[in-house]
Every structure is written in C-alpha cells, then in structure tokens.
Amino acid sequence: MRDSKRTNSTNGSGQVRREIVDLPLEMISEILSKLPTESILICRAVCKTWYAVSKDPCFVTELDNSQYQPTRLLLKPQVGKDISTPSYLVLVDIEKRKARQIPLDKMILDLQIMCSCNGFLCMASRKKLNPVVIYNPITMERVILPPSNMKSTVFCHEVGFGFDPSTDKYKVVRAYTGLSSRRKVRRFEIISLGESSWRELTVPQSIANRDGWAVMFWNGALYWTLSKGISTIVVQLDLTDEKFNVISFPRYFSSRHSSLGLIDVGGHLTLVQCNASVVKFWRITKNDVGGDLSLSLQVTYDTHVKWGCALGCSYVCQMNQESYLLQVGYWNYAHQRCENLSQYFPAKVQYSEFKIPGLPESFKTLRLKPNLSPLPAAYVPSDL
C-alpha cells in the first residue's frame, strides 16, 4: 500500500496549489463507505479517483451492506386540489432528526409513490395505467416501463415492486379496476424489468372483486390488504412462483371500522390494526404443516386516544423495543389535512411529538435505505 502524502503544485499565477491527499484506494473506499449516501454524491465531484471509487460495483455492494447506512424516512408532500405539487421529496434522518429536500424530476412530479425495494421507488398514477416509473431518489435516475394496452377507464390502480431472488430480477405487479363491456373488471398484471410487455396473472376468485390498499414488499413477496365492503383480507404474491396466497384470519378477527397497515416489527411482518382506542399487532407466520400463511395476535394496547375520521394515525416503523413512530393526521380549522410524526410508548401510554424541522404540512411516508446502485435494466420504447 502506498503511503499517504500531500503534494504541492503551482498554478498559472505562481500561487502554490495543494493537491488532494494521495491515499490508497482501499482507504478511500473505507472512508467513503462510512459517509451518508447523499454525502458520497458530493464527494464524487471532488476528483476522478473518488468518482471512480464510488462507482465501483464492489464499493456499491459494500455500501448496501454497511451498518453506517441506516434506513431513512422518505416523505412525499401532499397538497390540496388548487395547489401545485412541490417539486421535491424530503429525506429524513431519524437518529439525527434532520430533514433535507431532494429535487424531484418534473416528469414524475404528479405520480404517487406506490412501493419501494432496495432503495428504488415505484411510482405511478392511481387513475392512469401509464406511465409506471422506477426511480432512484438519490441519483435521480429513472426507467420507464412499457405502457399497458388497456385503453378503458381506470377506477383504481395500485402497483407493487419487488425483487425475485430466484432469478435476480426485479418485478413489477399492478392491480387495477377497469371498465370492460360496460362492467367493472379487476386485473392483475406482472412484468420483469427488461421485458417488453405485461403479462396477466391468474387471480383466485376470492380476491378478484376486491379493492386494494397499500402494497408492501417483504422477503421475496408482495403483500396487499384488499377489501370489499366491511370484509378485508391480506393477500401475498410470491414473486418466485407468481402465485397468490390468501392469509387466513382467525374467526374472532373483525376488520370493521379498523385501519390496517403492514410494517416490519423485530424482523417479522406484522399487521397493525387500529380500532377506535385499541391497537392490535398481528404477526404473519407460515404454518409448519402445509406452509400456509396465517395471522396470530401478538399484543393488544389501549391507546387512550379516540382515533377516527378527524384524528387518525398510521404506524411508520418500530423505533426500539419500547416505542413506535406514528404518523398522526388531523384536519385544521381551514379544513386542510395536516400531519406530524409522534413517538408512541405503548407500555407507558405516552406520546411524544417527534419534532424535525423542515417537514411539509401533509405527506406520505415510507421507509427507504438510500443506495447508489445503478437502476436495473429495463425495456425502454424507442420513442421515449
């Protein structure tokens, strides 16, 4: 390994100019890997050597597995009908309680963040099938998926995005309700990044006529909560065999007047059920016999808060063994939706406002681990 040294040179005006410290590449890589991903982007502009190190595939892989790259929150500001959408996202460092704005490409300004996987976002419209975009908010790179051939009116559109470990490919799955022959039809379509067209998935009758809520990628599969009237189910789509599994609910489970959400709690996929002043945590587990998925109740807390239409909450993530991070939403006196973050200690029934300067008044939240990985290859039409 070379010794570190600093060399001097003279510029055109005769002034001494100091060059960047000459360090072994291994040491530069080690130093950069301990910086936040956003700071590494700044370091790329320092010199060609640092740029080359940050682009090296081995460095990018090491960065993805580094303990110095914690998961962040990514917020997309939400606004009213008469106000234009802000052209930025907000990246939040939970540990340091800092927020910074990330410019958002104008082409995808009006799209919703549907799902995320390995630091990439899947963005689409809830009322239109096209476009569907895979986006890296850190590098601002994007790929546009092939358009759908479906020409009818779309009433509801949800898109999931995940990684299939059996093929090392990313897959995008969408569910939408459209109009065909004057009747509503529910369809599921799938595409692997790199393919030129969507394929229709065979859907069990039990989920064919249900509307979907948020979709989440977890451990090689996509998970939806689907509803019809007061009946709600959780559905898994295994990305390897591309088959659906309906997660069975206990007989005493009632989703009526409940708010449901999926989060990772201690390495386990958990369904969080908020019902009036009670919250229940249901763990999704695989049965030893047959391998079917089911729900098992883990814990119930009395929140001592009357949640409803005027005041609601969703669980963002588990902070530690004693607390969770909540997104609390309410309507102000001007009939505008406002939200903030709050730390909830269920055992103590305590709430503490999680103050972070620079947050928008209303936002959609997801967890994201920033990365510098290049976007996976995708088919791009020649006219784009």
TrEMBL record:
Mind telling me which SUPFAM superfamilies this protein's record contains? Answer: F-box domain
Gene3D superfamilies assigned to the protein according to its UniProt record, in alphabetical order: 1.20.1280.50
PROSITE patterns, per database record: FBOX (PS50181)
> Where does the record place the F-box domain?
17-71
Please give the InterPro entries that the UniProt record associates with this protein: F-box-assoc_dom_typ3, F-box-assoc_interact_dom, F-box-like_dom_sf, F-box_dom, SCF_F-box_component
Name by which UniProt lists this protein: F-box protein
